Amino acid sequence: MLGNLMRESGVVSRLTKASENEIANVVTLFLGISIGATMDGQKFLTSQTLMILGFGFLAICLDTVCGVLFAKLMNVMTGGKINPLIGAAGISAYPMAARVVQREGQKYNKQNFLLMHAIGANTGGQAGSVMAAAIMLSVLKGMGIVP
């Protein structure tokens, strides 16, 4: 959120560039080293782990596709009042999706100002993910799978 605020304000361009490049790279490096130092390769690279990564990738792809298709349906039902590109911003894991939607929308029409609507869809996706995770954890706890 802080990175989005810095970028959109346009006031602290050097700090924004540093946070996008150098600071992000250093944090990623330290995170990778700290996690990697405690991880055993034989325990991590299993078929179950690779399956989880594959399902995660599939979920992200389907989330984007279904979001755009649902927004297209809403566009048809409202007589063209909704830009279908807004559906791509519903990915809860990517706060940057709203900026991508804004940039792609303005590539084709300079009069498109989709950022606020895309941020709304993105926030709704994040709230929905939190609720789905809470329900899933409560079900798993009720089944005795999670302590």
Tell me briefly what this model is.
The chain is an all-alpha fold and 147 residues long. It contains seven helices and no strands.
Major sheet attributes = none
Low-confidence stretches are none
- What is the helical fraction, as a range of percent? over 70%
Compute the gyration radius: what is it?
19 Å
Shape: globular
Q: Would you mind describing this structure in some detail?
A:
The chain is mainly α and 147 residues long. It has 2 domains: 1-39, no CATH class; 45-142, no CATH class. 73% of the residues lie in helices and 0% in strands. It has 7 helices and no strands. The chain has helices at residues 2-9, 13-20, 22-37, 41-44, 47-77, 97-108, 115-142. Helix 6 (97-108) runs antiparallel to helix 7. The longest helix has 31 residues, at 47-77. The model has no long low-confidence stretch (mean pLDDT 84).
Q: How is the secondary structure organized here?
A:
Blueprint: H1 2-9, H2 13-20, H3 22-37, H4 41-44, H5 47-77, H6 97-108, H7 115-142
Helix pairs in contact: 2-3, 6-7
Descriptive tags:
single chain, 147 residues, mainly alpha, 2 domains, 7 helices, 73% helix
